[in-house]
Specification:
The protein has 6 helices and 4 strands; from the N terminus they run ααααβαββαβ. The protein has helices spanning about 5-35, 50-70, 95-105, 110, 150-160, 190-195; strands at about 135-145, 165-170, 175-180, 200-205. β2 and β3 form a beta hairpin. The longest helix is centred in the first third of the chain and has 32 residues, at about 5-35.
Length: about 210
Amino acid sequence: MNQSPSSADKPLVGAGLLAALAASLCCITPLLAVVGGLGGVASSFSWLEPFRPYFIALTVGVLGFAWYQQLKPRPADDCGCAVDVKPSVLQSKGFLGVVTGLAAALLAFPYYGARLYPTAAVPAATVATTGAVPVWQTANYRIGGMSCDACAKHVEHAVQQLPGVQAVTVSYDQGTAQVRFDAATSPAAQVAQAINGTGYHILPANAPR
């Protein structure tokens, strides 16, 4: 008995969605770390980043073939009439359209994921409650493991939680972070600990990314 195109689409739809998810995990997990407080899980999938183009190609290819299966003419019966088989919901064009839209949203996540981060409050000027004079420092770091804007936002968010931090600028494409902070309130070691606590790591100045 021949397998109908609709039933043959089931594994294709699942494979396409999984490929899209795999292509975006390296950027989705940092946001999950902020929302769910998952800490070091942020960089657990950073190793997938080099394979992202292949996952994208696999997603497009698999879902494209699934659409071909859905849209191609149905086989005719003995009288030459097209066989009209009503598919189930999971085998319908509507469901395939929903999955395709979800896969597209996952693939595009690195381009809009940073906008989903909570807006950080603008730090107020440091008030010396103990009579100590603020010791302003600007430190530059090289950070490994970041692969998208969402990763950079995760680092920014973590450092901004420290008291005495005046400004944080993180660039994922350059792999750098610049932090201006009051060393009397949050020592440099505490800033470095906050960065490393995101699951990414500070690199030596001469180390490759």
